[in-house]
């Protein structure tokens, strides 16, 4: 198949493109250097190919507390990006199936995190703007499907983890930040200080599991929104203990700063719908996934955990 991928150089994009090419597809990789998605004409240069699938992964955001300081920019930039992609899809690539990424932070913490509630209730205030741009993206799918019959699939991932995360200095998702801090403590004797009391809970999915699931659903399932999660969550303390055991650092030395931003207290996606479409779903065990991720961190430690001058 001819497949176009936006956000192709990101953590997910890199893994997805590599796997798509490995199984024989021709992949057209878009990134901020070869296509400025904020421009309405940026995608016209790719009109010469009739794509079978379009994976829309691009989004303007970062992990941590980034959303607290850039709500206006996030609204304007992501709305531009998403509108331009949807418009190009409808006008020039209506034969293609659009597979886009939602976000678990679009769910209201007051409701079960099940697909029927994706557009219901209020997201948490700290992530409100980004969450609403993702809701609007999904609303665009629904509208274009209703009027023009376009095929889509919206996937809502838990936090993804695994080897080959970005090394460009951006804020990291919590699991990578935990690993980095604990390795630094092991190497340089620094204090490990984690945000919150450590009892906030998170769900994570191994990157290669997500890619395999996404490709299977993209091939087999039309016009649905589907959560992709592990179906279970663990406390930050639990993750930290597992990492400490792997690295050989005393967990009792870890400190917790209860004054720092922690986001949602709990975030675990309901995955009944996923298991309906993939009944034999099998995921990488947490301990094995963390082991592979930590191994990669050690290999990249000169970039990820350099000694301060």
Automatic annotation (TrEMBL):
InterPro entries: Epimerase_deHydtase, NAD(P)-bd_dom_sf. It is an enzyme of class 1 (oxidoreductase). Keywords: Oxidoreductase. Coiled coil: none annotated. The keyword Magnesium does not apply. Residues 3-229 form the NAD-dependent epimerase/dehydratase domain. Its EC number is 1.1.1.271. The keyword Oxidoreductase applies. Signal peptide: none annotated. GO terms for molecular function: GDP-L-fucose synthase activity. This is GDP-L-fucose synthase. It comes from Pseudanabaena biceps PCC 7429.
């Amino acid at each position: 198949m001819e497949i176009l991928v936006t956000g192709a150089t990101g953590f997910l994009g890199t893994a997805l493109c590599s796997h798509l090419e490995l199984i024989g597809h021709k992949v057209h990789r878009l990134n901020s250097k070869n296509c400025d998605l904020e421009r309405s004409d940026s995608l016209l240069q790719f009109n010469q190919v009739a794509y079978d699938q379009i994976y829309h992964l691009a989004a303007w955001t970062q992990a941590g507390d980034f959303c607290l300081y850039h709500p206006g920019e996030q609204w304007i930039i992501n709305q531009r990006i998403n509108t331009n992609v949807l418009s190009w899809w409808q006008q020039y690539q209506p034969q293609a199936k659009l597979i886009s990424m939602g976000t678990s932070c679009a769910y209201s913490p007051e409701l079960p995190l099940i697909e029927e509630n994706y557009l219901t209730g209020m997201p948490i205030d700290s992530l409100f703007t980004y969450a609403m741009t993702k809701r609007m993206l999904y609303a665009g799918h629904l509208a274009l499907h209703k009027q023009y019959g376009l095929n889509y699939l919206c996937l809502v991932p838990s936090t993804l983890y695994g080897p080959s995360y970005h090394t460009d200095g951006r804020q990291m998702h919590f699991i990578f930040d935990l690993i980095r801090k604990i390795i630094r403590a092991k190497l340089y004797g620094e204090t490990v200080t984690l945000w919150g009391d450590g009892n906030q809970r998170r769900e994570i999915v191994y990157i290669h599991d997500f890619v395999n699931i996404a490709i299977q659903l993209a091939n087999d399932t039309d016009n649905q929104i589907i959560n992709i999660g592990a179906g279970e969550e663990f406390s930050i303390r639990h993750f930290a203990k597992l990492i400490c055991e792997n690295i050989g650092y005393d967990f009792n030395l870890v400190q917790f700063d209860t004054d720092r931003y922690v986001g949602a207290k709990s975030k675990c996606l309901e995955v009944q719908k996923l298991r309906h479409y993939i009944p034999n779903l099998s995921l990488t065990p947490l301990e094995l996934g963390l082991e592979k991720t930590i191994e990669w961190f050690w290999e990249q430690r000169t970039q990820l955990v350099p000694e301060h001058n």
